[in-house]
């Protein structure tokens, strides 16, 4: 795959321009672009600006609302209920996080439950933003079904992303962002294209039997991380993000790849804790620093691969790419430029 490097400011302008050309208001386009570019800065390119053409294809087909009326209710001082009005997921997610943080500033803890949303990108940009405001966070979403219940042979659960974040004053936060399958289907497709076998822990065939045949795996189901434990985590994420939020859940969630013209009605939840209400910032910084140093001082089993903290590599990617430019697949950059040029040629200035 050919890659190229683009300055953050240029990539941000291209992303905003492409979204505006697709019918998204300028302020909303900026919020969406911020989340997706944060994903690219972290090195999570599968959830970065390469998603914009997919989002806009769904807008064109009527599956996503480019100009949503996102509504928030406050049934209790710390609780926010957000209806995304079928908006583009990162926009809905950004608004919901803001609502949760606002509640948290008032009460010490803020919780936002979201319905009527779509794919909202990776969890890490939201965790990072919360940490920058001094908030610890637990954030998750449900997703299109790709995982069978433990022992079953039909997909009912999504590869639901979830994450935790802990601020550390002026130091790097500790961030953990994970989806709940052993691997993404993209890795299985790559093995099928290469004609190689896969580990039997990755997927099952259509009968629910673990397989090392990538073609059989693509016709079957992804396996959850940690076996039945990962299955349990996926269930609980969907209960919070789908059932409790009022969104769709399990196989009621529409597949955006099979039916891009149908709203997904995804659900998310954002739980944020104002750490200042528990521990003064300098004391939390001291404690997290001690925690970090104790872990990183662990002797490495392989000296060439030292112990790392969750999110450490992504934060290193962020610093490097902010300084040197963002690494983007050339094909993704070309597509973004084409969409941006279409907006310019059409005279779009929303």
From TrEMBL:
<dbReference type="InterPro" id="IPR043144">
    <property type="entry name" value="Mal/L-sulf/L-lact_DH-like_ah"/>
</dbReference>
<comment type="similarity">
    <text>Belongs to the LDH2/MDH2 oxidoreductase family.</text>
</comment>
<keyword id="KW-0560">Oxidoreductase</keyword>
<feature type="region of interest" description="Disordered">
    <location>
        <begin position="300"/>
        <end position="324"/>
    </location>
</feature>
<protein>
    <recommendedName>
        <fullName>Ldh family oxidoreductase</fullName>
    </recommendedName>
</protein>
<dbReference type="InterPro" id="IPR003767">
    <property type="entry name" value="Malate/L-lactate_DH-like"/>
</dbReference>
<dbReference type="InterPro" id="IPR036111">
    <property type="entry name" value="Mal/L-sulfo/L-lacto_DH-like_sf"/>
</dbReference>
<dbReference type="InterPro" id="IPR043143">
    <property type="entry name" value="Mal/L-sulf/L-lact_DH-like_NADP"/>
</dbReference>
<dbReference type="Pfam" id="PF02615">
    <property type="entry name" value="Ldh_2"/>
</dbReference>
């Amino acid at each position: 795959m050919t890659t190229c490097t683009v300055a953050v400011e240029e990539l941000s302008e291209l992303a905003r321009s492409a979204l505006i050309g697709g019918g998204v208001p300028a302020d909303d386009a900026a919020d969406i672009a911020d989340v997706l570019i944060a994903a690219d800065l972290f090195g999570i390119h599968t959830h970065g600006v390469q998603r914009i053409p997919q989002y806009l294809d769904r807008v064109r087909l009527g599956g996503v609302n480019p100009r949503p009326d996102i509504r928030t209710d406050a049934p209790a001082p710390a609780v926010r209920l957000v209806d995304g009005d079928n908006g583009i997921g990162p926009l809905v997610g950004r608004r919901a996080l803001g609502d949760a943080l606002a509640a948290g500033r008032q009460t010490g803890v803020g919780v936002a439950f979201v319905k009527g949303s779509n794919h909202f990108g990776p969890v890490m940009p939201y965790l990072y933003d919360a940490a920058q405001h001094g908030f610890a966070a637990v954030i998750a979403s449900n997703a299109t079904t790709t995982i069978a219940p433990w022992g079953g042979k039909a997909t009912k659960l999504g590869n639901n992303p979830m994450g935790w974040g802990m601020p550390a004053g002026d130091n790097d936060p500790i961030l953990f962002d994970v989806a709940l399958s052993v691997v993404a289907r993209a890795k299985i497709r790559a093995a099928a294209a290469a004609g190689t076998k896969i580990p039997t822990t990755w997927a099952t065939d259509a009968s629910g039997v673990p397989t090392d045949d990538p073609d059989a795996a693509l016709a079957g189901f992804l396996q959850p991380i940690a076996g039945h434990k990962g299955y349990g985590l996926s269930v609980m994420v969907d209960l919070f993000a789908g059932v409790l939020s009022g969104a769709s859940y399990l196989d009621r969630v529409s597949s955006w790849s099979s039916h891009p013209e149908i709203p997904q009605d995804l659900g998310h939840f954002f739980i944020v804790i104002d750490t200042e209400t528990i521990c003064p910032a300098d004391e939390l910084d001291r404690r997290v620093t001690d925690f970090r140093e104790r872990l990183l001082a662990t002797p490495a089993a392989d000296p060439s691969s030292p112990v790392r903290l969750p999110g450490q590599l992504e934060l290193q990617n962020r610093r490097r790419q902010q300084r040197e430019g963002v690494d983007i697949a050339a094909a993704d950059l070309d597509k973004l430029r084409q969409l941006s040029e279409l907006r310019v040629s059409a005279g779009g200035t929303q």
